Structures are given as C-alpha cells and as structure tokens.
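go over this:
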Amino acid sequence: MSAEKVFNQAELAKFNGQDGQPAYVAIAGIVYDVTGVDAWAGGKHHGNLAGQELTSVIDGKSPHGRKVLKNLPVVGQYQD
C-alpha cells in the first residue's frame, strides 16, 4: 500500500475522473484508483462521483459491497 500519500477532502476532490484526471474514491480510510473501471467512466458510477469519500455508500447502498475493492489499486490513505 502506498501509505506515503495522504489525501484530505480537498486533495481527493481533484481526482474526480474529469478533464483527464484519474478517478479516486476513499473507502474506510483507504484511497482507491477506479480510473480503469468501466463502470466509473467519466468519474461517475450509479449517481456517485469520484473524488469523494464513499464508505457509507458502499456499505449501505452498494449491492456488491466492499468485495470489489480487493481488485483496485491503492493509491494512499484518506484523512478528513
């Protein structure tokens, strides 16, 4: 894990998958790169936007839950 990079809310928001930016999301303190995931094309996935902390969404609303995270590259840690 790339623990060296720490993202806060403002830093994470820059990685929204738009205008050539990578798409990152934070779940439970870990920042994942979803850029290469087709379902996150354009930084959007089922009404959710990249560049945000989405723990409550993946735990409470996602049909797949956290099991999809194991296949994603970790790019850092999230601290708000």
User: Anything to note?
Assistant: The helical segments are 9-13, 55-60. The first strand starts at residue 6 and ends at 7. The chain has one domain: 6-78. The chain is about 15% helix and 25% strand.
